[in-house]
Amino acid sequence: MEHVEEVAVRLPRIGEPAPDFEAKSSHGPVTLSQYRGHWLMLFSHPNDFTPVCSTEIMEFARRYEEFQQRGIDLLGLSVDGVPAHIAWMKSMGEMLGRPIPFPIIADVDMAVSKKYGMIHPGDALTETVRAVFFIDDAGVVRALLYYPLSTGRSVDELLRVFDSLQVKARTNHATPVDWHRGEPVVVAAPASLDKVETADEAKARGLDYREWYLRLTNPQ
Fold first, then answer.
1. What positions carry a catalytic annotation?
2. pLDDT by residue (tens digit) across 31-68?
């Protein structure tokens, strides 16, 4: 059995500032700080010119306006170099019938990958796994997802997570199971006994009362 060296990696955590970086990309030099003021989806893929990655990048491009309508920029990453990125993006653009509108970081030295814990030796020794970092407009990590090399991501789910995070940022409400944009959201449970509402009190405020700890309202 092949020995996999254990490497201690500290992943950026939810609620912490995303690690800043300066890197080369298919669109020229990029830094994390240049995205301040916008939400950002920073995502990695294993390799250029691979089938699953190609389906993802093309679908991200096809639905790019849905991200932009939410104030979200996209920034990809792999350990391939700039020439490979450019050639691959031109090939995908021809298949898609439109250019790939977002940059892909050329993380040849794996400097950014290591900062974000994107190299998982148990899955691949040198390729990045399919990591996704949801970063808010203040540069703070609000969610993160990791997928193995073999599993393509769902754009619907990525947008759903962003919608939930933005509702939380805007209203401080949470979102229930299988929630989608525009559906009722969850009001925080009372923090003390004197804040507990009766059903009549909650309904008078326009809330959908299920129990004292479970009340729903329409998103604003």
1. 53
2. 999 999 999 999 999 999 999 999 999 999 999 999 99
Domains in the chain: boundaries: 22-154, 172-217
Q: Find out whether 88 and 49 touch, Cβ atoms under 8 Å.
A: yes
As to burial, measured by CB atoms within 10 angstroms (0-12 exposed, 13-18 middle, 19+ buried), residue 93 is: middle
Q: Give residue-wise pLDDT tens across range 143-155.
A: 999 998 899 999 9
Return the number of other C-beta atoms located less than 10 Å from residue 36's C-beta. 14
Cβ contact 23:152 at 8 Å: no
The fold of 22-154 is: Glutaredoxin (3.40.30)
Cα 34 from chain centroid (whole Å): 17
Model confidence, pTM: 0.90
CA distance 94 to 88: 10
CB 128 within 8 A of CB 119: yes
